[in-house]
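Person: I keep going back and forth on a fold encoding question. Show me how you would write down a chain together with its backbone fold. Please set it down just below, with no commentary around it:
Helper:
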Amino acid sequence: MKKYILEYVGIINEFINNEMKDADAERTREVLREFEVKIEYFQHERLIHLIVTVLFALLEMGSLYVCLLAPSLPILILCGMFLILLVPYVMHYYFLENSVQEMYKLRDRIINSLSEKK
Protein backbone atom coordinates (compact mmCIF):
# COMPACT_ATOMS: atom_id res chain seq x y z
CA MET A 1 0.00 0.00 0.00
CA LYS A 2 2.84 2.37 0.81
CA LYS A 3 4.40 1.92 -2.62
CA TYR A 4 1.01 2.39 -4.32
CA ILE A 5 0.32 5.63 -2.42
CA LEU A 6 3.77 7.04 -3.16
CA GLU A 7 3.44 6.20 -6.85
CA TYR A 8 -0.03 7.71 -7.08
CA VAL A 9 0.97 10.91 -5.28
CA GLY A 10 3.92 11.12 -7.69
CA ILE A 11 1.56 10.83 -10.65
CA ILE A 12 -0.67 13.59 -9.27
CA ASN A 13 2.36 15.79 -8.56
CA GLU A 14 3.54 15.19 -12.13
CA PHE A 15 0.13 16.22 -13.45
CA ILE A 16 0.05 19.36 -11.28
CA ASN A 17 3.60 20.45 -12.07
CA ASN A 18 3.73 19.63 -15.79
CA GLU A 19 0.44 18.74 -17.44
CA MET A 20 -2.11 20.87 -15.62
CA LYS A 21 -0.87 24.13 -17.13
CA ASP A 22 -1.62 22.86 -20.64
CA ALA A 23 -4.67 20.71 -19.83
CA ASP A 24 -8.14 22.01 -20.53
CA ALA A 25 -10.68 22.38 -17.71
CA GLU A 26 -12.47 19.14 -18.61
CA ARG A 27 -9.28 17.05 -18.37
CA THR A 28 -8.46 18.71 -15.04
CA ARG A 29 -11.97 17.94 -13.73
CA GLU A 30 -11.57 14.32 -14.85
CA VAL A 31 -8.28 13.99 -12.96
CA LEU A 32 -9.86 15.68 -9.94
CA ARG A 33 -12.83 13.27 -9.91
CA GLU A 34 -10.53 10.26 -10.09
CA PHE A 35 -8.29 11.75 -7.40
CA GLU A 36 -11.25 12.32 -5.06
CA VAL A 37 -12.29 8.68 -5.47
CA LYS A 38 -8.75 7.55 -4.64
CA ILE A 39 -8.72 9.85 -1.60
CA GLU A 40 -11.90 8.12 -0.38
CA TYR A 41 -10.21 4.73 -0.77
CA PHE A 42 -7.16 5.92 1.13
CA GLN A 43 -9.36 7.43 3.87
CA HIS A 44 -11.06 4.05 4.24
CA GLU A 45 -7.67 2.34 4.45
CA ARG A 46 -6.61 4.87 7.08
CA LEU A 47 -9.76 4.17 9.14
CA ILE A 48 -9.19 0.42 9.04
CA HIS A 49 -5.58 0.86 10.14
CA LEU A 50 -6.66 3.20 12.93
CA ILE A 51 -9.06 0.54 14.23
CA VAL A 52 -6.37 -2.16 14.06
CA THR A 53 -3.78 0.11 15.69
CA VAL A 54 -6.12 1.02 18.55
CA LEU A 55 -7.01 -2.65 19.01
CA PHE A 56 -3.34 -3.62 19.29
CA ALA A 57 -2.69 -0.70 21.65
CA LEU A 58 -5.55 -1.90 23.89
CA LEU A 59 -4.24 -5.47 23.76
CA GLU A 60 -0.77 -4.21 24.66
CA MET A 61 -2.12 -2.19 27.59
CA GLY A 62 -4.24 -5.13 28.78
CA SER A 63 -1.37 -7.59 28.60
CA LEU A 64 0.91 -5.11 30.35
CA TYR A 65 -1.68 -4.71 33.11
CA VAL A 66 -1.98 -8.48 33.52
CA CYS A 67 1.82 -8.76 33.51
CA LEU A 68 2.04 -6.22 36.32
CA LEU A 69 -0.66 -7.99 38.40
CA ALA A 70 0.55 -11.55 37.89
CA PRO A 71 3.97 -11.62 36.26
CA SER A 72 4.72 -14.74 34.27
CA LEU A 73 6.87 -15.61 31.30
CA PRO A 74 3.99 -16.40 28.90
CA ILE A 75 2.27 -13.08 29.67
CA LEU A 76 5.58 -11.24 29.29
CA ILE A 77 6.12 -12.91 25.90
CA LEU A 78 2.56 -11.99 24.86
CA CYS A 79 3.18 -8.39 25.93
CA GLY A 80 6.37 -8.30 23.88
CA MET A 81 4.62 -9.76 20.83
CA PHE A 82 1.87 -7.14 20.99
CA LEU A 83 4.50 -4.40 21.27
CA ILE A 84 6.42 -5.79 18.30
CA LEU A 85 3.21 -5.70 16.23
CA LEU A 86 2.08 -2.32 17.55
CA VAL A 87 5.17 -0.38 16.48
CA PRO A 88 4.85 -1.13 12.72
CA TYR A 89 1.10 -0.46 12.87
CA VAL A 90 1.70 2.96 14.41
CA MET A 91 4.37 3.74 11.81
CA HIS A 92 2.11 2.66 8.94
CA TYR A 93 -0.85 4.62 10.31
CA TYR A 94 1.39 7.68 10.64
CA PHE A 95 2.37 7.28 6.98
CA LEU A 96 -1.29 6.91 5.90
CA GLU A 97 -2.38 9.95 7.90
CA ASN A 98 0.35 12.17 6.48
CA SER A 99 -0.22 10.90 2.94
CA VAL A 100 -3.95 11.61 3.03
CA GLN A 101 -3.31 15.09 4.41
CA GLU A 102 -0.84 15.70 1.57
CA MET A 103 -3.50 14.55 -0.88
CA TYR A 104 -5.91 17.13 0.55
CA LYS A 105 -3.36 19.83 -0.25
CA LEU A 106 -2.84 18.50 -3.79
CA ARG A 107 -6.62 18.43 -4.28
CA ASP A 108 -6.82 22.06 -3.18
CA ARG A 109 -4.13 22.98 -5.72
CA ILE A 110 -6.11 21.31 -8.50
CA ILE A 111 -9.32 23.06 -7.44
CA ASN A 112 -7.53 26.42 -7.31
CA SER A 113 -6.21 25.90 -10.82
CA LEU A 114 -9.73 25.09 -12.02
CA SER A 115 -11.07 28.31 -10.55
CA GLU A 116 -8.27 30.24 -12.29
CA LYS A 117 -9.16 28.66 -15.65
CA LYS A 118 -12.71 29.99 -15.51
